[in-house]
C-alpha cells in the first residue's frame, strides 16, 4: 500500500513526499506498528521523533532511518511520566525548528483479566497509558497545534476493535480505547474551526504484533512498580483465531499495512477527513 500511496503522491505533484518537512512525534515507535509508521513517514519526507520506553530500540529505529537518508531523532522515555512528555515535546520542537505537525498516539500494551478478577492496578495502568498519556501529550503540544501558519496539523489516536465492540478479558483496554474516540472527536471540534487541526482515530483489528502472538512465547513489558505484564494471546485461543473465519480477507494484517493506514490519514489525501474512526480490520465486524 505504501508504494501505491507514493505513486498517488507523485501524480498529485508531491515529489518530495506526502509529509515533506513535517515534524511527527510517534509514540511507541521502537518496534511493531510504531516503528513501521516512523519508517513510512520518513520515506515521505517527515522529520520523525521516535518515542519509546526502550532506549535501545528507539535508537535503532532512528539510526536506521538516518542511515537510509531520512531524518529521525530518538527521545526515549516512559509515557506514564509527565516530565518525560514535556521533554518529548520540547525536543521535538527543537528538532523541527520550532514546529510540530503530527502526533501519532500509538504507545500501549494490554494487561488482561476478566472483570471479577481484574485489579485496580490493571485498570489504572491501562487507563493511564491509553487515555491519560495521549491527553497529556496533546495538551503539552497545544502551543504547536493552535497556530495559524497555513501548515497542516494532524493527530492520530490509535484505538482497537476492543474499544468499538468490547472484548472478553479486556474491560480496562476496551474502556480506554473507547475513550480515545471521545478524545479524538473533542480535539477535532475544539481545534478544527480556528486552527484547521485534523484529528482521527484508527481502530486496528487483528494485526500481527507482539500483542497478538502466542502468550507462551514469553513476551512481556515491565509495568508500574516493576510488574511483569505478559503479552499475547493464549495458544489455544490463538489456534482458534488463526482460522481467520471472522475476517473477510481471511488473514491478519501486517504492521506495515497498519502503518500505511496511519500514513494515509496524516497525508493530504485525507485533508477533508476529521473526527472519524477509521477501521483497519480486513473487514472484520463490518
UniProtKB/TrEMBL annotation:
Pfam families: adh_short_C2. It comes from the Eukaryota. One of its GO terms (molecular function) is 3-oxoacyl-[acyl-carrier-protein] reductase (NADPH) activity. One of its GO terms (biological process) is monocarboxylic acid metabolic process. It is an enzyme of class 1 (oxidoreductase). Its EC number is 1.1.1.100. The keyword NADP applies. It catalyses: a (3R)-hydroxyacyl-[ACP] + NADP(+) = a 3-oxoacyl-[ACP] + NADPH + H(+). Keywords: NADP. Belongs to the short-chain dehydrogenases/reductases (SDR) family. This is 3-oxoacyl-[acyl-carrier-protein] reductase. It comes from Coniella lustricola.
